[in-house]
Amino acid sequence: MKTIRPLLISFEGIDGSGKSTQCKMLYHELIGRGYGVHLYREPGGTGISEKIRDILLDRENEAMSPITEMLLYFASRNQLISEKVVPALERGEIVLLDRFVDSTVAYQGHGRSLSLESIWNVAEVAIGEVWPDLTILVDTPLETAETRMDDRELDRLEAENADFKQRTRNGYLQLVKDEPQRFLVLDGRESIDKLKQQVLARVDQLLDSLP
Ligand code: TMP
């Protein structure tokens, strides 16, 4: 198995953006090249985190307060980081995350209008120094994303209204403005194949630049 400097790549986007498809394709591509690669989804990726996921996405939990929601996302994330991500990075492997802290800033910060400062304060405790080398944002207009979800049974967050989703998308675009060098922004209306080529081009660049 090829080892390199540890690499953390996160994928972000609104529900129905197509990010999970891209994340899985990159995973298979890198596995095929002989790298040690792990793919985890958020919330989830460990036994405990998957249980937290069930609570978060259960449509019966309408009474959940925005702060409880935010803390549960970070609880799931901290468990994933401690149990899986840090050990994999310490072994010099590649970790792909289907969502990470930007999701909380976009959904709970911008979507739910929680204070961004409080989110970053909790992030400091929950994720410490763990930070993505690259974040791939699949930016997709609401209308396109919604047509892709037409036949899905929606979870608690997916069932939110259009204003919430628009604020979330705008939240992502604000994050890109704040830290442009970390992001690759893709147009989610492009074909799966074209997006895959764009992801690979950027990841190849990153792999080539590693010491
Ligand atoms: P998924 O459908 O991409 O697996 O994500 C589950 C849902 O949780 C999705 O609607 C986005 C939402 N979410 C947040 O609201 N905040 C977060 O921090 C994360 C990771 C996901």
List keywords for this structure.
211 residues, Rossmann fold, five-stranded parallel β-sheet
Largest sheet at a glance? 5 strands, parallel
Number of domains: 1
* Estimated helix fraction: 40-55%
Heteromolecules bound: thymidine-5'-phosphate
Low-confidence stretches: none
Report strand order across the widest sheet.
Answer: 2-3-1-4-5
CATH architecture: 3-Layer(aba) Sandwich
What is the arithmetic mean of pLDDT?
Answer: 95
Termini separation? 18 Å
**How big is the Rg?**
16 Å
Please count the beta strands (DSSP E, at least 2 residues each): 5
CATH T-level fold name: Rossmann fold
Would you state the CATH class?
Alpha Beta
**Which geometry do the CA atoms define?**
globular
General description of the model:
The protein is α/β, with parallel strands linked by helices. The chain has a single domain (7-208), classed as 3-Layer(aba) Sandwich (Rossmann fold). It is 55% helix and 13% strand. It is built from 8 helices and 5 strands, in the order βαβααβααβααβα. The protein has helices at 19-32, 47-57, 66-90, 101-111, 116-127, 142-148, 162-178, 192-209, and strands at 7-12, 37-41, 94-98, 134-139, 183-187. Strands 2-3-1-4-5 form a 5-stranded parallel beta sheet, sandwiched between helices. The chain is globular, with a radius of gyration of 16 Å. The protein binds thymidine-5'-phosphate. Thymidine-5'-phosphate is lined by residues 15, 41-43, 73, 99, 103-104, 107-108, 157-158.
